[in-house]
Amino acid sequence: xxxxxxxxxxxxxxxxxxxxxxxxxxxxxxxxxxxxxxxxxxxxxxxxxxxxxxxxxxxxxxxxxxxxxxxxxxxxxxxxxxxxxxxxxxxxxxxxxxxxxxxxxxxxxxxxxxxxxxxxxxxxxxxxxxxxxxxxxxxxxxxxxxxxxxxxxxxxxxxxxxxxxxxxxxxxxxxxxxxxxxxxxxxxxxxxxxxxxxxxxxxxxxxxxxxxxxxxxxxxxxxxxxxxxxxxxxxxxxxxxxxxxxxxxxxxxxxxxxxxxxxxxxxxxxxxxxxxxxxxxxxxxxxxxxxxxxxxxxxxxxxxxxxxxxxxxxxxxxxxxxxxxxxxxxxxxxxxxxxxxxxxxxxxxxxxxxxxxxxxxxxxxxxxxxxxxxxxxxxxxxxxxxxxxxxxxxxxxxxxxxxxxxxxxxxxxxxxxxxxxxxxxxxxxxxxxxxxxxxxxxxxxxxxxxx
Length: 451
Ligand SMILES: Cc1cc2nc3c(=O)[nH]c(=O)nc-3n(C[C@H](O)[C@H](O)[C@H](O)COP(=O)(O)OP(=O)(O)OC[C@H]3O[C@@H](n4cnc5c(N)ncnc54)[C@H](O)[C@@H]3O)c2cc1C
Prior knowledge:
Blueprint: E1 10-13, H1 17-28, E2 33-36, E3 48-50, E4 56-58, E5 64-65, H2 66-71, E6 78-80, E7 86-90, E8 93-97, H3 99-102, H4 105-120, H5 129-137, H6 139-154, H7 164-167, H8 173-186, E9 206-209, H9 214-221, E10 228-229, E11 234-240, E12 243-249, E13 252-255, E14 258-261, H10 268-271, E15 272-273, E16 285-297, E17 306-308, E18 318-320, H11 322-325, E19 334-342, H12 348-351, H13 354-364, H14 372-375, E20 376-390, H15 396-405, E21 412-414, H16 416-419, H17 426-450
Parallel strand pairs: 1-2, 1-14, 2-10, 7-17, 11-15, 14-21
Antiparallel strand pairs: 3-4, 5-9, 6-9, 7-8, 11-12, 12-13, 16-19, 16-20, 17-18, 18-19
Bound molecules: flavin-adenine dinucleotide.
């Protein structure tokens, strides 16, 4: 009788939400895997920090949905967020988004005129993000608000960006208005534009896990210790023919049946050996970000949770006072403002010390909070070289190809926010990763059952 051999494990590259979601699904089906995380802890971008003096900061993610929490059996461990609001600062005034902007006559007139003009001239479909926003929002709103924000956020002129940047914005205006109203009626911060994989509705709202967003990853990681290696970078992925056959970790080659990578897509070509199928992804760009969390005396220093800053006088494009929505993130009578700065690795912002960044940010927000410097209690400055995927026109065709056809190597999946190169929030990362991993599971199950 011939002895059956256990199939080689699946290698998972990265222990953020996507890698852990994949690991959880494989374990559920009894498929062997090894998860390698380069850093010394799990959760990736979904990490939470708590200072000794009672301030909580999340790396990026602040809000998750009650639907994601329920899917992970964490509903009871989450607090409901009752309010979430955004305003746009223009000429020293905070205008509510989106309703307030609709009430600005020059934006309405410009939008109506642009629509009429484009209809009469039967203009072609917009070929870049600048044209997309002017066509859809009208020139005044596009030029004064949408395009300056887009350029500060992406670091690129809007006419070099693909129209898909605009197409990714959440549903229609009527739907947004209905969801806002539903939130008021139910006293819950209904989630708008948080998940593309599942429908938005009045029964999907923002929640916050008791122990920070990082606890979502901790829940997924429960019981997986035996297959998780921290502080272990995947150095190479070897491809033979059109299949990944092994990965190199700790200078050793490990045979694998498949690879699920959550590494940033532009880095993946440098890891893969044996094919140049992924070379086209090497030029994809991510916008690095600095998130300066300023702890301040006082509460409700901004007029709403998020203030967008399209005017060029500001170095930042967005300031968030998360404790307006989630009072528990700061001690009573105190607050945290998160100032987002788009930058490039190695530029003056990137190289500045944390104290200098905090000082510049306090000066930057002085028009919003005039005595911010006097209120300053401390800060935590976070930097990431991979804050946001930037959809450049130059590689739009390759981006669409990645979304439709994958990596070009049959058993090498590239998933998660940075692996899929998409603006995915946590619920989307979870849903899409499950959907992408399922065909691989179906493929591997017969061999696992036979072993
Ligand atoms: C500024 C900001 C704000 C956000 N706000 C929200 C929000 O309010 N709500 C929300 O739902 N989402 C939000 N998000 C998105 C959310 O944080 C991400 O969607 C999610 O955390 C991405 O998880 P991931 O596993 O795809 O990627 P990551 O978290 O980046 O995980 C990838 C992991 O792979 C590891 N890795 C990379 N290369 C290797 C290698 N070669 N070997 C081993 N390990 C490797 C990395 O160390 C990392 O831990 C925000 C994101 C940002 C940047």
